[in-house]
């Protein structure tokens, strides 16, 4: 690994625009290349962000010898093939959530990464937000006793548009993979892997999820109640209940600045910890530091957690009558 970690961006879309801006706050990391299946789109992105090389195919950036790690921001079903190609090329990966379109695809990527000793992490920025880090510290210290339940919601009101990736089934569109991944990952982070998943919701006319409510059950009686929607706006708040109090994670919980600790018999304690830059910097720092240390997984966002979340999402989708598929032809 070179002294400076050299990054490449795969898929110069909406989320990549936001994430790339945060590299300015990451010491020792430099974006040196971007790839799109449109050479013009890659060059436009490169010119606007001061990136040296623009590749007109994903295969080209996988073969670029001057890239250490790839940030994969293509639609969900394209992650699987790109990830496997990158791992075969020895390149580390930060992969946007949802990690893949299917559990089988996620397992194949994880198995390949572990076999090759290549670093891979899901880009779940929530886990690295300073306020969420503090939340986990408080829980570990017993501030609210034993955590028994989690509530979380995340939804936006979007007019259905068949031409938008968010609503395109072949691109993994729908509420679950785009927004539901946040509520499920948050609950799994605090409660672990559920024993049961129960889902209800509705679909748009083309068969993708408009909204979903999930109940995660645990054999010892713990639970998580989760909501996600592209049909209507939701507050974006989370609440963590323990035997000695609770914590409110103020909107929007997936990148919060403030949490409020409620201990039984005590006044509420408001804790504000703003993110660095736009908040994506924290996951970029994690990857950069892991690579410098020679680690192949993040302790904060381990691959086992990614697999568990992917499994919950797939179970929920199946109960709504939705199936997803990987795109093997992306390269």
From TrEMBL:
Per the database record, which ranges form the GFO/IDH/MocA-like oxidoreductase domain?
133-247
Keywords on this record? Oxidoreductase
Which residue ranges does the record assign to the Gfo/Idh/MocA-like oxidoreductase N-terminal domain? 5-122
Q: Which InterPro entries match?
A: Gfo/Idh/MocA-like_OxRdtase_N, Gfo/Idh/MocA_domain, GFO_IDH_MocA-like_dom, NAD(P)-bd_dom_sf
Oxidoreductase recorded as keyword: yes
At the top level of its lineage, which domain of life is listed? Bacteria
- One Pfam family of this protein, by short name? GFO_IDH_MocA
**Similarity comment text for this entry:** Belongs to the Gfo/Idh/MocA family.
| PANTHER family cross-referenced by the UniProt entry | OXIDOREDUCTASES, TRANS-1,2-DIHYDROBENZENE-1,2-DIOL DEHYDROGENASE
Protein's name in the database: Gfo/Idh/MocA family oxidoreductase
């Amino acid at each position: 690994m070179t002294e400076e970690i050299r990054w490449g961006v795969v898929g110069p879309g909406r989320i990549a625009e936001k994430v790339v801006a945060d590299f300015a706050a990451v010491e020792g990391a430099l974006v040196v290349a971007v790839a799109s299946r449109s050479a013009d789109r890659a060059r436009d992105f490169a010119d606007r962000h001061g990136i040296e090389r623009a590749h007109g195919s994903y295969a080209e950036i996988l073969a670029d010898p001057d890239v250490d790690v790839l940030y994969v921001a293509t639609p969900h079903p394209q992650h699987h093939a790109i990830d496997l190609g990158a791992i075969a090329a020895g390149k580390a990966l930060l992969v946007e959530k949802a990690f893949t379109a299917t559990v089988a695809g996620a397992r194949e990527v994880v198995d390949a990464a572990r076999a090759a000793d290549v670093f891979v992490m899901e880009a779940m920025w929530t886990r690295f937000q300073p306020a969420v880090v503090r939340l986990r510290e408080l829980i570990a210290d017993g501030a609210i006793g034993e955590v028994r339940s989690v509530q979380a919601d995340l939804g936006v009101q979007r007019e259905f548009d068949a031409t938008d990736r968010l609503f395109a089934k072949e691109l993994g569109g729908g509420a679950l993979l785009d927004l539901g991944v946040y509520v499920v990952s948050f609950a799994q982070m605090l409660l672990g892997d559920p024993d049961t998943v129960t889902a209800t919701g509705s679909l748009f006319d083309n068969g993708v999820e408009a909204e979903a409510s999930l109940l995660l059950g645990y054999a010892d009686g713990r639970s998580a109640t989760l909501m996600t929607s592209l049909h209507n706006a939701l507050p974006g708040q989370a609440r963590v209940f323990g035997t000695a109090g609770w914590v409110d994670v103020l909107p929007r919980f997936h990148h919060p600045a403030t949490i409020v600790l409620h201990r039984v018999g005590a006044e509420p304690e408001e804790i504000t910890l703003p993110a660095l830059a736009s908040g994506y910097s924290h996951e970029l720092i994690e990857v950069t530091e892991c690579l410098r240390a020679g680690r192949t997984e993040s302790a904060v966002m381990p691959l086992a957690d990614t697999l568990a979340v992917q499994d919950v999402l797939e179970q929920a989708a199946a109960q709504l009558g939705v199936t997803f598929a990987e795109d093997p032809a992306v390269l």
